[in-house]
Amino acid sequence: MSRKLAIVTGASTGIGFELATLAAKDGYDLIVVADEPLIDAAARDFEQFGTQVTAVEADLSTFDGVDTLLAAAKGRPIDVLCANAATGTGGAFLDIEPALWRRAVDTNISGTLYLMQKVLKEMVARGEGKVLVTGSIAGFIPGTFNAVYDGTKAFIDIFLPALQNELKDVKGVTVTNLMPGPTDTEFFARADMLDTNVGQSDSKADPAKPAKDGWEAMKAGKASVVSGLLNKLQVAAAGVTPMAVMAELHRGMAEPKNKD
In the chain, how many domains are there? Predict the structure, then answer.
């Protein structure tokens, strides 16, 4: 009996690395991808669990990058997709270079949707497969000084329930939305947000926690999971708090301390 195959994007560090570790421990062969050479070192870590690992360095903000990733499967059925790759752009929107915010939109939305569409078509045809998408509680909050990232996560958080409804009569295929809060990953350095209260906070979650929550929710076929009690409370509060108030609160978290 052949081993099952999982694809994990953004797997070189953070939540993606932890998701790939969980998949390897559960006996999945892996295709792991990131847009940096560090993915090769990560792949060697996953091999310790006795699984076959293929590392792919690709830019998932482009359709060509997604196609490169999928070609690495070499025709094997994809049993699990963890669509975790994302990038952020901290700072005032008017000061962000268009190429940077466009890359965030293309990675977090366009590339993610293209990958999901390609994989889900095959899963639906087989009647088997699980998809875990890393959304965020940021999708519920107007992200002052991180507006593009939060906007892309709002898209994902509202897109997925619609997709789940379209697939509700498809047996054997599930889509799960993992919604973490601030997590101790490379995100804040890459988004140029180290000079912010949230970037410097010691209360960010260990990435292993949301990864475990998401992996277990995906295996159970759940529609979504918010990782962490405080994050659950924030999501609940977002439903009754005026947008302007939430935007001001987010400003306190994400506004650069050095405005020069």
Answer: 1
Per-residue pLDDT band for 1 (boundaries 50, 70, 90) equals: low
How far CA 33 is from CA of 124, 189, 217, in Å, comes to 23, 20, 22
In a domain, residue 259? The reply is: no
| Residue 57 pLDDT level (bands cut at 50, 70, 90) | very high
pLDDT band at 37 (very low <50, low <70, confident <90, very high): very high
Under DSSP, the state recorded for 94 is G
pLDDT of residue 260: 57
Among 73, 35, 52, 18, residue whose Cα is nearest residue 206? 18
Instruction: Establish if 260 belongs to a structural domain.
Output: no
Is the pLDDT at 178 greater than 90? The verdict is yes
Distance CA 244, CA 229 (A): 24
Whether residue 141 is contained in a domain is answered as yes
Tell me which residue range forms the domain holding 200.
Answer: 5-254
Q: For the segment 83-132, what is each residue's pLDDT rounded down to a tens digit?
A: 999 999 999 999 999 999 999 999 999 999 999 999 999 999 999 999 99
CATH number, domain with residue 50 = 3.40.50.720
Per the CB < 8 A criterion, the answer to whether 157 and 136 are in contact is yes
Q: How far apart are CA 172 and CA 161, in angstroms?
A: 17
In a domain, 224, yes or no: yes
User: Which among 155, 159, 116 has a CA at the least distance from the CA of 138?
Assistant: 155
| CB-CB neighbours of 13 under 10 Å | 18
Mention every residue, 6+ apart, whose C-beta is less than 8 A from residue 190: 87, 88
